[in-house]
Write a structure and sequence with these properties.
The protein is an alpha/beta fold and about 210 residues long. The protein has a single domain, classed as 3-Layer(aba) Sandwich (Rossmann fold). About 40% of the residues lie in helices and about 15% in strands. A six-stranded parallel beta sheet has the order 3-2-1-4-5-6, with helices on both faces. β1, α1 and β2 form a beta-alpha-beta unit. The protein is globular, with a radius of gyration of 17 Å.
Length: about 210
């Protein structure tokens, strides 16, 4: 099974990497593909150019078996819709099951995504739950879980798509926003992200105000 993790990655940090590794090990994924988005739909647009964000992702995952940098959204013009990315991945990996990794906040807003039903027809959802996070009481989300939730990752290997797994992951109090704010204030982001990423930030004077 292939894990799919999208985001601005502006910059990528240990919070992204640790949770991806948690899921890869818990669910026994063959790989996790990190896919930086081109143009955001549900969040602020990235500050940093696509090429540099891809460089940071590549540096961050260097040396970790099963982690892959994927530039398909950066190469595609227009808004980055997950459903389009999954269709593209299916064309490239027709014999693999896809698992979309998303945070609890994103899952609670899943109804607002483009074609959520089609997304579920293309992939399983793995909802990364940090300590203290809860699924929304929204009627649509609860109905979705009633129909699609799976508590056994092993069973997902035998179905093409359509299951939702709530997976506990490590809580790291770090975010791209906090890192950008630290740098803008003249402080070092060391130990919040991989050293290779920090070097790219320094070399290109990123996030300075």
């Amino acid at each position: 099974m292939i894990g799919v993790l999208g985001g601005t990655f502006d910059p990528i940090h240990f919070g992204h990497l640790r949770t991806a590794l948690d899921v890869m090990q818990a669910v026994d994924l063959d790989e996790v593909r990190f896919i930086p988005l081109h143009s955001a739909v549900h969040r602020d647009q990235p500050e940093t150019a696509a090429e540099l964000r891809l460089q940071m992702v590549t540096a961050a995952i260097a040396g970790q078996a099963g982690f892959v940098a994927d530039d398909r959204e950066l190469c595609r013009q227009g808004d980055s819709y997950t459903v389009d990315t999954l269709v593209s991945l299916h064309r490239d990996f027709p014999d693999h099951t896809l698992c979309l990794l998303l945070g609890m906040d994103a899952f609670n807003g899943f109804a607002t995504w483009r074609q959520p039903e089609k997304i579920l027809s293309l992939a399983h959802l793995i909802v990364m739950q940090r300590p203290g996070e809860k699924v929304a009481s929204d009627v649509w989300i609860q109905s979705l879980l009633t129909t699609h939730q799976c508590n056994d990752a092993e069973k997902m290997k035998h179905e093409a798509a359509g299951r939702i797994l709530i997976q506990e992951v490590t809580q790291l109090d770090v975010s791209s926003t906090k890192i950008r704010s630290l740098i803008a204030a003249g402080h070092s982001p060391r130990y919040l992200l991989p050293e290779g990423v920090r070097q790219i930030i320094d070399k290109n004077s990123l996030y300075l105000r």
